[in-house]
Structures are given as C-alpha cells and as structure tokens.
Amino acid sequence: MLIYDFDLPALTGLLKNWDEPAYRANQLWQGLYQHLYASANEFTSLPKPLREKLSERLNFSPLKVKLFQDSSDGQTRKTLFELHDGHVVEAVLMRYDPDTNSGKGRRTLCISTQAGCAMGCVFCATGQMGFSRHLTKGEIIAQVMYYARALKEENLTVTNIVFMGMGEPFHNYENSMAAIDILNDSDGYNFGARRFTISTVGLAPQIKRFADEKRQVNLAISLHAAEDDERLAIMPVNKRYKIDDVIAACKYYVETTHRRITFEWALINGVNDTPETAQKLAARLFKHFDYSQRGMLHVNAIPLNPTQGYDGEATNRRRAAIFKESLEQAGVGCTIRMRRGIDIQAGCGQLAGGAS
After folding, report:
1. Torsion angle, CA of 24/1/140/212, rounded to 10 degrees?
2. This model's pTM is above 0.85
3. CA 156 from centre of chain
4. How many angstroms separate the CA atoms of 341 and 94, rounded?
5. Using CB atoms within 10 A of its CB, is residue 48 exposed (0-12), middle (13-18) or buried (19+)?
6. Could you report how far apart the first and last alpha carbons of the chain are, in Å?
7. Which of 20-24, 65-69, 196-200, 307-311 is predicted least confidently?
8. How far is CA 88 from the centre of its chain?
9. E strand or H helix at 63, and its extent?
10. How far apart are CA 5 and CA 339, in angstroms?
11. CA separation for the pair 116, 271 (Å, rounded)
12. What per-residue confidence (pLDDT) applies to 354?
C-alpha cells in the first residue's frame, strides 16, 4: 500500500491495528509532510522494528523517474514518472523569478490527476493519448512531495500547485479533493487552499458540487470557444455540457462562493483569436453575469502549445494583443500568459506521448 494514500485518521487506525500508540501516527505524519522523509529509515524517532515494518508493508516511493528535461532558460523542469503498473504521468516545475535563489518568486507545480485523459480535446497531447486510469490520491500527492524535496535542497519551497497536468481533475473528483485535503492539513504539509488551482474542461455537475463544498481553492475553466459548434470541434465534452451549461454552473459557483473564476483560452491562430471571437465571448459571459459581477470574471489566454496530433498553430503576439484589447473593451479582464518550456515539450501530455 502507498503511504500517501492514508490520511491521518486512516494512518492512526493502521498503527492502532499494529498495537502502536496513537502518537506514532502523528510522528509519521509530520515526518512525511513537514520533514519530507522519503523512506522509512529516515524516521529515526520511530523504533527500529516499526521502521522495518513500515518499510516492508508500505510503499514510500510510488514514482520512478523515467525522464526529465530542463528548459534552455533553466526556469522549467518537466519530469516523466513511471507508476507501479507501467503507466506514465508528468509533473512540471515552473519558476517565475529570474533570481531563483531569492526565495521571493513563484515556484509553481503543475501536476497530473490521471494517466491519460478521457476528455479528448483535440489540441491537447494528453487528450490525444486517451484514458488509462485515475491516479490515487497518494500518487497525486507523491508528485508534490518529489518536487518539494528537490526544492528543499535549494532552501526553497513550492509556492503554488495547479491541477492542470495530465487528466481531468473533476473526472477523478474524490481523489483530487482528498489529495488537496491532505496537502492542506495544518499539522502536515500545511499548503494554503488559496495556493491551489483546479482546472476543468467544464463538468457542470462537479463545478456545482465544488461550489457547494465552499472550498477556498481557485477554479479555472478551459473554455477555448464562444460558440457551441466551434467548441465541439475541439472539445468533445461540449456535446454533453454546452457552453451555456458550463457558464451557468460558473455563475452558481461565483454566487455561492463569492470567489473570482478564471476562464482559460488557448489562442489558436485564425480559430479563436479574432476580435469578433472576443466580442462573442464577452456577450456569452454577460448573458449570465450582470454588470456588478464583471470583476469576478477573468480570462487567461495563452498561445497554443503545439502538438503532433493537431495542425493548429499558436497565435502570434500581435493577434494575442488585439484579442486581449477587444475583450477588455467589451468589459472582461484578460491576461496573456507566457508559454513555458516549449523547447522541452512542457505542454500537458507531450513528454508522455513521446515516450509511449
């Protein structure tokens, strides 16, 4: 069994069954998530017989590094991990401070929740792979712990975690949320809820469930089109959840949580990057949101990451700037994000697709 699949109550129950005192679970928990121990032998505060038992019965190393690549600017590292059953997943560390030793910049992890993906978005390398299986909550957590240990060697820490890697987090809802709960635990890793972001293609029922749970976790919606026929051509999920269904669920989220929501937009040259598209997007949003709610909406646009399975090309800077200006003139805030790690195939699923 994977050690990271246990929350603290389950770990306490396990050790109780082993006739160990309850405080041993707390020692184990703090060793895992505060000291970032990676093997049973590192828990020197535990008796040797218990360390041996832990080593024999629990797996502390679920991820085998199959490949890693660093971008030419040294700011992005992508790691391909092999799981126990041979499936592969990716995680990416992105540094946003040129002075990486200052400790003041962001160090964002992009982690995976599934091996492959069932959503089938045509421009996404993971979607082109198809779906293999859900990751357990422990396999999700292990990606964070791997990079947390690596950064600790530089006296640095993770500052943000985005569930934007391989897979659809809301398709693996329970394990994704359980991973966040464990990482957020104040007696463990204590990673603030507002430093997580969940990205979804727009599974409307799960958006509403997420809203009802009133989490402080940030929510991002992969929209990418303002008309249903155009979205369906690149995102098969639109057959089940139309754009109006998704935006209505987003309105419910905003009104329930009073938190801002982000819409992600992959800028594809000549497909969804025109001023007319920007105006259509604004009109679609304001069909559901009134004037007073405009500040709760924001579009993060990023030029498309190229993949071998899709012929579309990334928008150039001029077209991206015009799209942003058009959207802002229509009343919707927009940020053009820079692409990271293009030279190392850092887009979702690209490294795994090349290795399979």
Report:
1. -80
2. yes
3. 20
4. 8
5. exposed
6. 26
7. 307-311
8. 16
9. none
10. 33
11. 26
12. 47
Distance CA 260, CA 289 (A): 12
Give the separation between CA 224 and CA 264, rounded to whole angstroms. 7
Distance CA 176, CA 165 (A): 12
- In this predicted structure, the answer to whether residue 122 has a pLDDT above a threshold of 90 is yes
DSSP-assigned beta bridge partners for residue 335: 300
- Whole-number Å distance between alpha carbons of 308 and 311: 7
- Domains observed in the chain: 3-57 (1.10.150.530), 64-355 (3.20.20.70)
Spatial contact of 248 and 295, defined as CB atoms under 8 Å apart: no
Q: Hey, which residues are catalytic here?
A: 90, 348
How many CB atoms sit inside 10 A of residue 162's CB?
19
Q: Are 276 and 327 in contact (CB under 8 A)?
A: no
Which strand (E) or helix (H) includes residue 338? none
Q: Which amino acid is at 256?
A: T
Pairing of strands 131-134, 218-222: unpaired
Residue with tokens 């080593």: 55
Placement of tokens 């909406």 in the chain: 297
Nearest in space to 169 (alpha carbons), one of 126, 123, 122, 129: 126
Amino acid of residue 270: G
Q: 108-119, pLDDT tens digit by residue? A: 999 999 999 999
Tokens (6 digits) for 199: 């990205």
